[in-house]
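hiii, so i know i said id send this last week but things got crazy w the move. better late than never?? heres the sequnce for the chain we talked about at the cafe, plus the structure i predicted for it. fair warning i was half asleep when i ran it
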Amino acid sequence: MPEGSGLFGLAAAAGAGLTVLVGASQASDVRGLSMPALPVSTAESDEAEHGLASAQYPWPHNGVFSSYDHASIRRGHMVYQQVCAACHSVSLLHYRDLVGVAYTEEEAKEMAADNEVVDGPDDTGEMFDRPAKLSDPLPRPYANEEGARYANGGAYPPDLSLITKARHDGQNYVFSLLLGYRDPPAGVSVREGLYYNPYFPGGAIAMPKMLADEGVEYDDGTPATESQMAKDVVTFLAWAAEPEHDERKLMGIKWIFVLSLVLIQAVYYKRLKFAPLKSSRVIVDAVN
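okay and structure toks below
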């Protein structure tokens, strides 16, 4: 898959899918949308309630013998760190998980040392701050859910560790959501503090549009277009939800190879033993 924004024809595909909008949900006051009550079809009501269906994108790691693009995982972590980490956590990831996947051990240690964590108690019974180590989890933006809601007007930014598994059609949904922000169509009004996105259930989301061209500077020189950043951060989140993905596929290939050898040996042994029996002629002398 090419490295640039051409990967999925991304923004174009997302834009095309958006023309069939939730112009849809003529139900009154649905998750931040205030619209007049008009007769609607079952399909339109479902679209308004559950969000516009995402397009199906050819993720390069979805093939039977395909693995993650580790350069994309590294870029996706940069997008998460610079754009998403201000509100969202990935509580199941530790710095050590990034070693050998997106960063070297030295890079991961240096990254960890830039953050401080509370540890202790020490010999006096007091807690203390220390530089983070590889064994520490990635930092959380908020200490608890109450603090997160207070800082975001009552909305709770979900943890992203398993987001591509927790949402229907996870990778395609997250990708479409990130690129799906539009002005509300005629007849649709969105409450103050919410933003129109037809892929989000109800069409109104508290998270503003976060991706913009050149919003992140990639260290490998890849152009940081909106679609490229969305693709990379979704790849990172897919890996975060399923870090054993590559190892599982490799183990499966090994087992298939071994079982194929066993099958060949079993077939050969069966033919070797049964060939004399099948080729022999048995004569029964019923008279004597």
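btw The two ends are 79 Å apart (CA to CA). thought thatd interest u
miss u guys!!
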